[in-house]
Automatic annotation (TrEMBL), chain A:
It is found in: Cytoplasm; Nucleus. Transmembrane segments: none annotated. This is Proteasome subunit beta. It comes from Helopsaltes ochotensis (Middendorff's grasshopper-warbler). Pfam families: Proteasome. Component of the proteasome, a multicatalytic proteinase complex which is characterized by its ability to cleave peptides with Arg, Phe, Tyr, Leu, and Glu adjacent to the leaving group at neutral or slightly basic pH. The proteasome has an ATP-dependent proteolytic activity. The active site is at T11 (nucleophile). Signal peptide: none annotated.
Automatic annotation (TrEMBL), chain B:
InterPro entries: Ntn_hydrolases_N, Proteasome_beta4, Proteasome_bsu_CS, Proteasome_sua/b, Proteasome_suB-type. Keywords: Cytoplasm, Nucleus, Proteasome. It comes from Helopsaltes ochotensis. One of its GO terms (biological process) is proteolysis involved in protein catabolic process. This is Proteasome subunit beta type-4.
């Protein structure tokens, strides 16, 4: 019965690096069992001005960890007197996800821009491993698009190519995965700032 | 390693010295619980099930040193999710370590080892950890973690050359440890070990080239028969001169027999 099911962001999330920043994207469906609790969820959560995380797994777990990391980063950034590194944010996520690995159900992608290393994408899958990748996908919907990604990804894509790549991949996953759907939320994070877009209905590739 | 603050978990919930003992209700705990099945009454951080895993690691002594080989994939169940992970770690100039099993635990182990090596360099006494010492340390760490029912879910091979002697040792998540001239973890223990041992049956150890070829052949057999393997791999060779890490290289597979069927 759906009231007994945990609220999960059964999901498709994705992030790609490009020269000068990152493009991140997610679907917008939150499910309790097979009931769609929220069809317009925002799974792209800022943890700092230029650092976002894409959340998959348990909605509660990921929100809790993201809140904690956002707090730690804000504190750290004040002490540092400069924007925090994306790697630091990813490491903070990893520390919580590894320590509480048996309690948590959280697959997180951390992506952003910092002045030292530019655009970076880090993945913290369940279990608490930390890995940097040129692009990363996660969530239940990701299984359906590994083939598409392997065939289509090219290193060195431009920002708009990355946005198109992410949008197409997410659209494909959302069609096939019952736990993913709704609208595609995209965000491009660069030195200039964060530009968010929503692709809905007929805008979907 | 965790600082020894709280008492081991199975004594938690007992009487504080001098206080009245008020037993806690069964299953209750002050640590926030998640949805993990069977994780009630267990403190945080236990690896009860490996998540992203690495498959076999192979080790072989040759005349002049030791070498380790492992593929570069991290599997998420049956999915070959991360295809560029290095499972071989250079600890210092005389030792390498190869890990299979849970890769998040391997990363944790890597952090511990890296810190240990840094601390030792800071001592500046000219000594560095020998492969045998590292093997012994790792055995103690893994055995103690298993004794607290909180294992580091890894099987590790340690290879090195120290004081002119080569060393190849094995430790697993239970703290089982031994040395041998050839070793393999995971599937490798069944498929590769017989091949490695056959090469060692002669009087002398194989030459470096022979050993390198043999390891590649074993990795190919594993690629044919282990469903969680991958055809990209790395090799680490340790000699008196130091550690050389080769890779990532790609295995060529022979599918000729397909035409015979």
């Amino acid at each position: 019965e759906w009231t007994a099911e945990p609220v999960s962001t059964g999901t498709t999330i994705m992030a790609v690096e490009f020269e000068g920043g990152v493009v991140i994207g997610a679907d917008s469906r939150t499910t309790t069992g097979s009931y769609i609790a929220n069809r317009v969820t925002d799974k792209l959560t800022p943890v700092h001005d230029r650092i976002f995380c894409c959340r998959s797994g348990s909605a509660a777990d990921t929100q809790a960890v993201a809140d904690a990391v956002a707090y730690q980063l804000a504190f750290h950034s004040v002490e540092l007197e400069e924007p925090p590194r994306v790697r630091t944010a990813a490491r903070l996520f990893q520390q919580s996800c590894y320590r509480y690995r048996e309690e948590l159900s959280a697959g997180i992608i951390v992506a952003g821009w910092d002045p030292r290393r530019g655009g970076q994408v880090y993945v913290v899958p369940m279990g608490g491993l930390l890995l940097r990748q040129p692009f990363a996908v996660g969530g239940s919907g990701s299984s359906y698009i590994y083939g598409f990604l392997d065939a289509t990804f090219q290193p060195g894509m431009s920002r708009s190519q990355c946005q198109e790549f992410v949008a197409r991949a997410l659209a494909l996953a959302m069609v096939r995965d019952g736990s993913s759907g709704g609208v595609i939320r995209l965000a491009a994070i660069t030195e200039e700032g964060v530009e968010r877009t929503v692709l809905a209905g007929s805008d979907l590739p | 390693m965790e600082a020894g603050a709280a008492p081991p978990p199975f004594w938690a919930g007992g009487p504080a010295p001098g206080q009245t003992y008020i037993p806690r209700a069964w299953g209750q705990s002050d640590i926030p619980r998640g949805t993990g099945i069977g994780s009630a009454a267990l403190p945080a951080g236990r690896t009860l099930s490996p998540m992203v895993t690495g498959t076999s690691v192979l080790g072989l002594k040759f005349s002049g040193g030791v070498m380790l080989a492992a593929d570069t994939v991290g599997s998420y169940g049956s999915l070959a999710r991360f295809r560029g992970i290095s499972r071989l770690l250079k600890v210092n100039d005389s030792t390498v370590l190869g890990a299979s099993g849970d890769l998040a635990d391997f990363q944790h182990l890597r952090q511990l080892l890296e810190q240990m090596v840094i601390d030792e360099e800071l001592l500046g006494d000219g000594h560095s950890y020998s492969p045998r010492a590292l093997h012994s340390w790792l055995t103690r760490v893994l055995y103690n973690r298993r004794s607290k029912i909180n294992p580091l879910w890894n099987t590790v091979l340690i290879a090195g050359v120290y004081g002119g002697e080569s060393f190849l040792g094995y430790v697993d998540m239970l703290g089982v440890a031994y040395e041998a001239p050839s070793l393999a973890t995971g599937f490798g223990a069944y498929l590769a070990q017989p091949l490695l041992r056959a090469a060692l049956e002669r009087d002398q150890l194989p030459s470096r080239e022979e050993a390198r070829e043999l390891l590649e052949r074993c990795l190919r057999v594993l690629y044919y028969r282990d469903a969680r393997s991958f055809n990209r791999y790395e090799v680490a060779v340790v000699t008196e001169k130091g550690v050389e890490l080769e890779g990532p290289l790609t295995l060529e597979a022979n599918w000729d027999i397909a035409h015979l069927v």
